[in-house]
Queue: 2 jobs
Job 1
Amino acid sequence: MTEGTSNEHQVQPPSGLGVAMVGHAFMGAVHSQAWRNVHRFFDLPLTPRMVALGGRDAQRVKEAAGRFGWSSVETDWRALIERDDVDLVDICTPGDTHAEIAIAALNAGKHVLCEKPLANTVAEAERMTEAAERARANGVYSMVAFNYRRVPALALARKLVEEGRIGEVRHVRAVYLQDWLADEDAPMTWRLRKEQAGSGALGDIGAHIVDATQFVTGDVLTGVAGFTHTFVPRRPGPGGTEEPVTVDDCAVFTGRFASGAVATFEATRYALGRKNAMRIEINGSRGSLSFDFEAMNDLWFYDAEEPGATAGFRRIVVTEADHPYLKAWWPPGHLLGYEHTFTHEIADLLTAIGTKTAPQPSFADGLRVQRVLAAVERSAAEGTRWEQVDSTT
Ligand SMILES: NC(=O)c1ccc[n+]([C@@H]2O[C@H](COP(=O)([O-])OP(=O)(O)OC[C@H]3O[C@@H](n4cnc5c(N)ncnc54)[C@H](O)[C@@H]3O)[C@@H](O)[C@H]2O)c1
């Protein structure tokens, strides 16, 4: 044996999982970062191998693969699914492509990670869930990428609710506020076309607060009433011609959870000054919790069991080693960011696949969110007994 190649000098990686990803823009970059680094921080039963990146333009997909660390490229997602070295397909494309890619991948025996919202319609989400359940019977797993479940502060919030620290949940108050569409001249994007995005702020960011509140409370929404609005009905499209905006710009709705808890939701991309303010407050019979993604390392906790004179919302800096996911990272107070939520998501997915456990949130969870979105749209379309208020004096 030549020097330097003896077994004692070699590092044995855990068994690998061949990953292919479709789409290489915003989510493609974020997911690539997670696939590249996850096994360097988390102890995992499987190490991802970034074997292939899919995109439609040969030049652009090649550049992206080089930058993000993928070993090869395909210009048709179908070719990715046919490859023997691909065990998992990660879908980072707009909603109109999710159902077709996910169902084909699952039927071919590939695990699937699919970006949210799961689909553009309930019917698509139902077909995806059926395919996921059939595949699961053969040891093939799937997960929908609601990454906010993996914010340590929200995972801690869930734990506190589960432990009864805020008692019985009475109020759930959630908003998701961005402002990137407030400029009326901002150009058209696929996110503003119903046939590609399914819906607007509702499915894009409203889906996150529906999933996150169901996750934190461990409960499900059983009814909603709301309305949507489009502030800017036309936008400059490609080539300078105006194109109609066919989705909502904002959605405002109320809801009721199975437990009886009362909820309010607002999703908008017109809240000037708010960049990614995903805020959740929960009031229970023994205390309250409050979270704002723009300060994502903090969870605010009001414990009503404390003496009135000193009780108050206290800030928990969620960076202690015994907080969810934090053992893998830095010393206390060395803050985490947006990208870590995806690393956590992929760590959980690899652990689930490696231990043959169904990952969460499942496609069935994604379908549940889709049904809430569809119910909001029905309520908005039917005009839920909107009472006029006399405003003449
Ligand atoms: N989890 C989150 O926080 C989060 C944030 C943003 C977007 N998303 C979701 O991620 C998905 C992608 O959004 P994005 O922001 O990355 O969009 P994007 O526009 O930045 O990227 C979309 C990518 O998909 C590619 N694409 C489109 N159609 C394709 C096709 N038929 N075949 C192959 N590639 C195709 C585009 O070329 C591009 O690379 C959407 O479902 C979106 O809702 C999730």
Job 2
Amino acid sequence: MKTLNLTVNGKGTSAAVEPRTHLADFLREDCLLTGTHLGCEHGVCGACTVLKDGRPVRSCLTYAVSCEGASVQSIEGLDDDPLMVRLRDSFSAEHALQCGYCTPGMLVTARDIVQRFAGQSLSDARLRQELSGNLCRCTGYTGIVKAIQRVLRQPEELPIASAPASTLTALQMDHYTRLPLEEGAMAGPAAAASSSDGDGRRIEAAFELDHPSEAVWRALRDDIQGTVACMPGLELRSVSETGEVDGVFHVGMGPISARIAGEGRVVFDDAACSGRVEGAGKDGGSGSRARGSVTFTVQDAGHGRSSMGIVMAFELTGALAQFSRGSLVQDIVRLLIEQFRVNLDARLRGEEAPSGKALNPLSLLWLSLRSRFRSWFGKG
Ligand code: FES
Ligand code: FES
């Protein structure tokens, strides 16, 4: 047994638990909070969804001991939450429940969606994707979608201040607990650094451009299609006025290649000259899934030059997960960023737009191995 100290629904709690006890059992059996339901107990149905430090998690996949020092909110802890009150009313008005077994998890997820998409118009199709990690056997989802849309349509009333800033605004990956993909500081000049958090990866890079920062920022912000075309392998199929994008990323290394199709969102912060692209998608061939974010910042480097910092955070699951492990991935990303720099520089000089085609997988592997051999044998 281990002693666990955490906050549950705002109250400090201490208990002795077995290391194998999951959070749902702890809430139901130790805290007697039976509003958290268990359906599949292996991360598929979403009935057990609760908030851990403000983010939705599957409590059946979360060990209680991993919540040491955390703040957990179950459906009971959201009784007086103003947004939850509105969602509950809306679920009743739109007949969004029958047996109610899925409803606690559905409401917790709905609250997260409303916070993340506050003030935006969200298509029913996209909303259903966001809800794809919560299964309902009874309703057919129509009432649930209507209930959430009803709340989303009144953004002026939404208390959005508590929305976690780094939560992905793209597809909610069903079956997977979310991995926090956090922004980070800019790396040194032309440097690329990588770090791993579980199966997630975070890579930072920075480079200088021989163009003023205002020109670089304008080019990035005013022509999303052109910016995306600078990144080898990335193809944008559509971009909405609110920054929602739909695209494909072709990536390959050696015998492995993938075509990851998905959706995402682009946001710009003019004041900070920074932007963020977040998205998630799936490779139809291997069934692998990817999600991640790219944060970029443009700064004045003096003498008419600018520096650009890039932080990439991503998570791969399935056969492609081998890309997220080992240092080769750092080489691949560094090559992609270097090619992005070359293409962006050409674009800023008014030269022909880059093709946006993927680098040849074998050449990518060769370039990576060549730079590795050079560094091993001191020829770099
Ligand atoms: S019980 Fe946790 S996802 Fe189904
Ligand atoms: S209302 Fe019965 S499972 Fe959703």
